[in-house]
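Narrative progress, year one. The postdoctoral researcher (J.K.) led the effort to move from monomer predictions toward full complexes, under supervision of the PI. The following entry was the first complex the group processed end to end, covering 228 residues in total.
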Amino acid sequence: EVQLVQSGAEVKKPGESLKISCKGSGYSFTSYWIGWVRQMPGKGLEWMGIIYPGDSDTRYSPSFQGQVTISADKSISTAYLQWSSLKASDTAMYYCARRYCSSTSCWFDPWGQGTLVTVSS
Amino acid sequence: DIQMTQSPSSLSASVGDRVTITCRASQSISSYLNWYQQKPGKAPKLLIYAASSLQSGVPSRFSGSGSGTDFTLTISSLQPEDFATYYCQQSYSTPSTFGQGTRLEIK
């Protein structure tokens, strides 16, 4: 079974750093892009960026470029999303998902269970 | 970025109803359009990929159509478990973008 398991909920203070994880299993981790999606409380889905664990090629949405860092460690089949200095506005649920492509589209499936990040003083 | 606009933003319907949700792209995206369902407190779930292909395990009452800029998700006969929020997503260009969501509520 293809599965993505994310790290647990985090509560942080503004200005702190954070790295959350997404571990893949049941497939060749280095052969598929992994994406990150933000969902702020009560809001919709926002595409943050994707990484190809095979060579760490990374693409960011302009909205998130410079605000977060996406990385991966293929030796342990894990992708990461990190912040160097959190803001209250980073409070959200963060999902990772595997990107699968055919000749006619690319889509996210499956998704991780989500990691809730709360930033509050 | 390509903008995705869903309509309606919310919809009230009854069990057994036929429901259609529309997604419009700000430029042509061929068939690079996917649909997801999200229930409260859960991760999104893929329903339809490449505009009209039904994901394995998804009930056949769900269907998708369209190409270019205009797309639809249709639920032929609403079931109680279908009340959720639905999102479209374009994967034609980076960054990929989602519609704002359509909340489907019980009438």
